[in-house]
Amino acid sequence: MHEMSLALEIKAICERELAKLPESRLTALGVEVGAFSGVEVETLQFCLEVVMSEGFDGFRCEVVRQPGTAACLSCGLEFQVTQAPFECPRCGALARGVSGGDSLHVSYIEVECE
Ligand SMILES: [Zn+2]
Predict the structure, then answer these.
(1) What confidence score (pLDDT) does residue 102 get?
(2) DSSP letters spanning 14-46
């Protein structure tokens, strides 16, 4: 389960950012998970809750899936996808990912200064 190590890395990013601002508190965290990253949104959300519960609390955690583009291997149609497996909306054949959404990144960190 590599979601756990990703969650730890995200926590490290939060700690680094908060260290720059004394007397600050994390209020919200946004993470974008690419459609081709192989990361389960639900699993990552769960891991983040577990990892972050030590040191941070009372913040909003939003993990969203970022769409990518896939191309149908049968009819060639290109379409937006958010979750594997990618099925062609026109003919139902399997498609392969072609662009976008193969990464994971922290989209925003919101802090409140006392
Ligand atoms: Zn197709």
Answers:
(1) 85
(2) HHHHHHTSTTEEEEEEEEEEETTS---HHHHHH
